[in-house]
Write a structure and sequence with these properties.
Layout (H helix, E strand, L loop, with lengths): L1 H26 L22 H4 L3 H27 L3 H10 L2 H20 L1 E2 L1 E5 L2 H16 L3 H18 L2 H4 L5 H11 L6 H8 L17 H26 L1 H10 L1 H4 L1 H7 L5 H21 L3 H18 L4 H17 L6 H8 L10
Helix pairs in contact: 1-11, 3-15, 3-18, 5-6, 5-9, 5-17, 6-7, 7-9, 9-11, 11-12, 11-15, 11-17, 12-15, 16-17
């Protein structure tokens, strides 16, 4: 209990820093550089900016609907925790807990190996010299093979820190998620069947010991919360900046890939779906999912939504694959371990006097 209380301020500080960075960048109207920097983003045809610049029945109605859906999600999540819905699923999750850190290790490791193979860091637009490629290859191999995972994860954090000496900070904000990912790998440890523990037993030791590498101020549940909050704030930022503040960039993506991302939606829903409405709606979905993740609402179902989003963008934009490799490990973590600490529905359950939530927090 004391450890959890001790590290809660650290979690709050992380959320505050991430939020401050997001607000500062949005307030500065930094040109969007996440998805649009990898694909053509010049609008083919003029568009009406009214939906993004003035309040009207359409955007206000959609915004109110999104708020109502979020409120319903909070209530549903709280009811599920209070009434024990999903206890059998929670039992299955418990049996899969050992696989979570391994999934994140593999996602992080394969990302580093892909970075090394392409001569890039974090995103394919950030080129690095051969020495950094070699470091990425070593760290990625350690994580994928499963040997020296703790030092490799700290190496990832160190490499990210050094990246600020090579690239502008604004280029690295898109990739802050790698820090809580590496911390999760460090804090959660490895299952008994992991290669490190197997080698330790072969050497006559009971287990692989690298506890000295783990920060005492952070628990596994709180590291999951860090990932959740970082990813949620990133989605909010992308939705605001790339879709609403700079709609011309998202509009350009739609125009250049209309046959795969816009026309199918228009075919299903009808001709009333305009390009402007499509981009505004896409931003609203991104912001809504980001807010729900940040608050820890229905994280399991949202993990399924995220899987579909990541898979779709990786299929449409092949260059997105590198940026999404590690995110599949995050999806596994959310599905198995839930929201982690500091989730709003869990706090509501505790505050209502129903005791411990039967579902993962």
């Amino acid at each position: 209990m004391k450890a959890g209380v001790a590290c809660r301020p650290s979690l709050v500080r992380l959320a505050g820093v991430m939020g401050a960075v997001s607000v500062a960048l949005v307030a500065g109207s930094r040109t969007a550089e996440a998805h649009s920097k990898w694909v053509p983003h010049t609008p083919v045809d003029p568009f009406d900016p009214a939906l993004f610049t003035t309040l009207n029945r359409v955007n206000v109605g959609l915004g109110v609907t999104a708020i109502l859906l979020l409120a319903i999600g909070v209530v549903v999540d709280k009811m599920a925790r209070t009434r024990g819905v999903g206890q059998s699923a929670a039992a299955v999750r418990g049996r899969l807990m050992d696989w979570t850190p391994v999934a994140v290790e593999l996602g992080l490791g394969t990302t580093l190996l892909a970075m090394a193979a392409t001569g890039t860091a974090w995103g394919r637009e950030l080129s690095v010299p051969p020495a950094v490629q070699a470091a990425e290859a070593v760290l990625g191999t350690m994580l994928v093979v499963g040997l020296g995972v703790g030092p490799a994860a700290w190496g990832v954090i160190g490499l990210f820190g050094l990246s600020f000496a090579w690239f502008p900070a604004t280029d690295l904000v898109d990739y802050l998620i790698y820090i809580p990912l590496a911390l999760f790998v460090i804090v959660r440890g490895r299952p008994r069947w992991h290669l490190e523990h197997w080698l330790a037993r072969r050497m006559g030791r009971s287990a692989w010991t690298d506890g000295w590498l783990r920060p005492r101020w952070l628990t596994g549940s709180q590291s999951i919360a860090m990932i959740r909050i970082a990813l949620g704030l990133s989605l909010i930022y992308y939705g605001l900046n790339e879709k609403w503040i700079h709609p011309e960039l998202a509009m350009g993506v739609v125009d250049n890939h209309a046959d795969v991302i816009f026309e199918p939606v228009r075919t299903v829903l009808g001709s009333w779906v305009t390009r402007e409405l499509y981009v505004f709606g896409a931003g609203l979905v991104e912001i809504g999912v980001g807010v729900a993740l940040t608050l820890g609402v229905l994280v399991g179902p949202l993990a399924v939504v995220l899987t579909l989003l990541f898979a779709t963008t990786a299929t449409i934009f092949g260059s997105e694959l590198l940026g999404h490799l590690a995110l599949y490990g995050i999806v596994v973590a959310f599905l198995v371990e839930g929201a982690g600490s500091a989730a709003l529905p869990a706090r509501l359950v505790a505050g209502s006097g129903h005791g411990q939530s039967p579902l993962p927090s």
